[in-house]
Amino acid sequence: xxxxxxxxxxxxxxxxxxxxxxxxxxxxxxxxxxxxxxxxxxxxxxxxxxxxxxxxxxxxxxxxxxxxxxxxxxxxxxxxxxxxxxxxxxxxxxxxxxxxxxxxxxxxxxxxxxxxxxxxxxxxxxxxxxxxxxxxxxxxxxxxxxxxxxxxxxxxxxxxxxxxxxxxxxxxxxxx
Length: 176
Description:
Number of strands: 5
Radius of gyration: 18 Å
Helix content: 25-40%
Low-confidence stretches: none
Oligomer: single chain
Distance between the termini: 23 Å
Mean pLDDT: 87
């Protein structure tokens, strides 16, 4: 069934981005206290992502919720994007990853990292990079502006940056 197909090891996760923000460190002239905008409007969208550390390739979708329905949409998109490959997809133990509802396409094999070990999932560092590049000390007027910034920031990440952030030695050694 899988003979002759390329095997890809990809790491998957979701992260929320919204209008609520926490002030971050910033630079200013000595003796001046910076004024950092902040607000607490609880509107979010969720980035679903899967990255391949060896190549830096990735697949990202922005979805309205973190649930089984959205996860199934993401899995279908990932499967179609890499339709000629077998994807070993590592993800955490979120309920929508393990519930009876995930519909796994034929070319995706799902496995989970142990609970409470986000450091084992290198895509976690991609979310930090996206927040650093696109979401520092800014107030967004609408949720659509958050989504626009999120999409622009994701699209601005070149494969070599994704690979350098996620390419842990143990992953490279196993798959090279």
